[in-house]
Amino acid sequence: MRIEELKAAVVGTGFIGAVHVDAVRRLGVEVLGVVGSTPERARAKELAPVYESYEELLADEQVDVVHITTPNHLHFPQVRDALAAGKHVVCEKPLVRTAAESSELVALAERSGLVHCVNFHNRFYPLVQEMRERVRAGEVGEVWNAHGGYLQDWLARPTDWNWRLEPEKAGELRTLGDIGTHWLDTAQFVTGLRVTEVLADLSTAIPRRRRPRGEVETFAGADDSERTEVEVATEDLAHVLLRFENGARGSLVVSQVSMGRKNSLRLEVDGSESALAWDSERHEELWIGHRDEPNQVLLRNAALMRPVAAARSHLPVAHAEGFADAFRELYRAVYADVARGRPSDDPDYPTFRDGHVEQLLLEAVALSDRDRRWMEVPLP
Question: What's the pLDDT score for residue 224?
Fold first, then answer.
């Protein structure tokens, strides 16, 4: 079967649901329909035909792949039911809210023989792929250090609100669960090293917020006319020290209250021979650091990149490929396996097992902050 013959459906019609719809269509895959919080709200988005319910979507035998882009607390039952219905699944991160849930989904997915993916799309920026290939080729030498952060400002005011501020929907960790997992996955992907220990310090910079009475979508403004003051317990920012399996060290700053930073995932890898650095707000550039020769800045250019990375780049140099293109390339890899009818032996996209790794990390971080000590990360 060819990728273009496959059919998809998307659950969730907010900001990220629309990104999924667009990316899938750019592969030539038909989106048969979407499911929203209500059929009326879904129709108002005009993304695709609307299913009246999730049950109706799962009953549609034409649907090959289900994309889950709903709030975190809905992921577990929706993924479980999609697998039971024989659908391949792409799920937004974090996969679920607890390691017990992610462990169960890994077991269900691997027994099913179906393709399963967690949406860690940052792996599929061409220059992130280039970083990984240079590390794998030994150009960095022995990895000593991986550091950086993920900074945003969209929750930097007491009047900013989103469902992610509600632990019953998002989980115990908010900023780390929402964007910190992206950094942790990217760092482990690039270095090829597992994080084995963490020491965390979490902070709620805005302990009281003014919650609007109505629903507010991600990155959308809210009407200031009717609000209720509420206490917030989840973290606005986090500082985490890391130890990797080869003895390398790392550090991570995650924040959704950093003024002026819109979507800055910064990763630098220091090794015995050279260093590499990348920032998602300057995603067309890869900095390459040397001691005994001039440093370099590689602009995304397939002619100058390793074959694996070049294969994820489709536009000429200086024709920017960014956020939406990373989603498309992730789904290109996923849908290639769907077209084969089963997962690869070694998938090049993040699977539910990768999502489980991140959940184990989150729980270790929460325990470390609570106990004020280093915490080992369990093996998945």
Answer: 58
